[in-house]
Predict the 3D structure of the following.
Amino acid sequence: MIGIFSFVGFTLLVAVISYLATRNTNEESSDGYFLGGRSLTAGVIAGSLLLTNLSTEQIVGLNGSAYKDGLSVMAWETLAAIAIVVTAIFLLPRYLKSGLTTIPQFLANRFDVTTKTITSGLFLTGYVVVLLPVILYSGSVAISGMFNIPSLLNVSNETALVICIWGIGIIGSIYAVFGGLKAVVVSDSINAIGLLIGGVLIPVFGLMAIGDGSVLGGLDTLVSANPERFDSTGNPGQEVPFMTIFTGMMLVQLFYWGTNQQIIQRALGAKSLAEGQKGLLLASFLKILGPIILVLPGMIAFHYFDNGLESSDLAYPELVRAVLPKPLVGFFAAVLFGAILSSFNSVLNSSVTLFGIDIYKQHINKDAPEITVVKYGKIFGICLALAAMFIAPLIANAGSLFNYLQQINGIYSIPIFTIIVVGYLTKRVPAIAAKIGIFSGSILYIISQFWLGPNMVEKALTAAKESGVTNQQALRIVEADAYPHFLHIMAILFLLNVGIMLIIGKIYPRKEVFVIEYTDQVSIEPYKYVKQLGIVICTIVIGIYIYFAK
């Protein structure tokens, strides 16, 4: 019961602070509701970015990957730091100069309204179909298991899951739909503090458990027992092959941190360019420390359980259950709940923004006053939340589904990133090139990953088995050699789409040269140390890879 009380108390504390911090914000205007009145400061932006990024899928999933492959999976965290630096120096100044509320708005200015609408539709489809139900389902599984809701309420596992889904969904909807972006980022910032504290406690107690009470002793034991698992370049057949960090991995990171509405919306709400850049740089530095929370526990679990777990996805929850003192379980559950809630309400708020600005205002009611745009954006958000809450229980296996969806996201992420990059780096590539780039990128990726790739893998698997190796050995051979990794495929298609767009631009150039117009929404005076600090952060990331390379 102490765990329940601490959980409820921490959650209510966050809600009260969020209300007090946002009660004077004018949420009847688009800027007030969608961008927090363009008043966000560096600390709030950094905290919200981190909590929006973190969810149960990542905390459990990435530690599960570390349980299997070791330190090499840190690429998902450390390379994010470089992508955030690129966003701070090159992309954010252009976004704020244009006064953007959504990324697709730039595409309307650069290409045409149809391109913007297609992109908004792709974003919304990805958020609604891919992200919201998965976040609700996986988060509910974690909370139900941590508090043992079936026994507590004397209900079946299925009923407990539905109760948790609707609880998370309703609370998240209140923040996102009725509180706007500022309520989301304030709650995120508070939860970020708790997550950092709780997240660090797990590897600390884990190292103490394998080091006879000593953190340094535990670390020495962990390294000496399996030194090959601390190789930053990894081994063949691993989840993140080393060479992918020079190809598709960086493209995925740049799309996610630089153009994904769910993430970049926090920086778009900055009170000035300098504040936005400071917030991004702070988040970038903290991402370097991310492996302490998202990779190290999985590696500790590998040693603690002597690689004896039935599934790698059990690594994190089993380690928490084994090493965390019982009085702290309630606090950690509340922190984890905050991460789940943050991911849900952030995606929902971004969906509301895209619909209100890019769909309703553009196509349904062009003359609608801002208060009406906000009103129908909220209605749309409620409908999305309800749909996600009904769909979430239908998901049978959230863990494997999440891994599978990482590839599905490539259907829209790389095509969108391609047209944004070409849009900013060229002046005369026309709108028709952007439309062709979106559709060709999506279609070619679908053909590659869901038809050509599986067929080649199946043939290679059959040939490997016929050679006399075991099924596990055959799978390893196929995973490493049969077909290019999906991150390599993303890089190949990115270059191909860029080439297609440039050729079209050469044959049918845009009549007028595109020029970014300054809208004077906020000060675009850059933070004076942005480049120097960016170089320092990138140098640290490179140094980490060199230090741990075997």
